[in-house]
Amino acid sequence: MSPTIRILIAEDNDLVLLTLEEQLRGLGYDVVGMAHSGAEAVYLTARLCPDLVIMDFRMPEMDGAEATIRIQKHAPVPVIMLTAYADNETIRKVREAGALGYLVKPVSENELPPAINIALARFKELQELRTKVTELEDSLEARKLIERAKGILMRRLRMSEHDAYERLRQRARDKRTRMKDIARAIIEAEELFGS
């Protein structure tokens, strides 16, 4: 059996909040918290670490769009925006805030599982893409450092590009560290001692 999905609901209308809570619990979801304002939603998301947030768009203190932006910045989690409005401006704000789903009130119980599943899947895809981007950026930085260090070795020790690369690789093995770190040390030494 798969683990229960933990959900935080952010809604300032008590009747809508309780109805949504009842629907979610009836579907087997775990409602871990309920917020009555955008600010409270941001706080509870950081504190409770839910798997997903269902957020009303119009709330006191901080609207759902701003709350979603803050959540994504500090404690990223998929957000489904809940609203009574389906106009283009509202949809644009929801999209720009980073919500991964959109439900129009009143929400029927059968709309919830697909919206939740899609939001969770999209969030997972986004997290995987962010990880790949970070890895590619690290790889590019390492490649630049290694190329620069090879150039220094080629110039200083009058060796071929292949020999310079092999020297970096062997030094990294001997020190049990990454080539990137050896390259950085060579570049720093070059900067310290000058050309």
* CATH fold label of the largest domain: Rossmann fold
Q: Write the H/E string, N to C.
A: EHEHEHEHEHHH
Please state roughly what percent of the residues sit in beta strands, choosing from under 5%, 5-15%, 15-25%, 25-35%, 35-45% or over 45%. 5-15%
CATH superfamily of the largest domain: Response regulator
- Structural class by secondary-structure content: alpha/beta
First and last CA, distance: 64 Å
Largest sheet: spatial strand order:
2-1-3-4-5
What percent of residues adopt helix (DSSP H or I)? 55-70%
Weakly predicted, low-confidence segments: none
| Total number of distinct structural domains | 2
Q: Count the helices. How many?
A: 7
- Just give the CATH class of the largest domain: Alpha Beta
Give the mean pLDDT: 90
Biggest β-sheet description: 5 strands, parallel
What is the CA-based Rg, rounded?
25 Å
Structure description:
The chain has 195 residues and is of the alpha/beta class. The chain folds into two domains: 6-107, Rossmann fold (3-Layer(aba) Sandwich); 135-193, Orthogonal Bundle (Arc Repressor Mutant, subunit A). Helices cover 62% and strands 13% of the residues. It has seven helices and five strands. It has helices spanning 14-26, 38-48, 64-74, 88-97, 112-157, 161-175, 179-193; strands at residues 6-10, 30-35, 52-56, 79-83, 101-104. A five-stranded parallel beta sheet has the order 2-1-3-4-5, sandwiched between helices. Strand 4 (79-83), helix 4 and strand 5 (101-104) form a beta-alpha-beta unit. Helix 3 (64-74) runs parallel beside helix 4 (88-97), helix 5 packs across helix 6 (161-175) and helix 6 (161-175) packs across helix 7 (179-193). The model has no long low-confidence stretch (mean pLDDT 90).
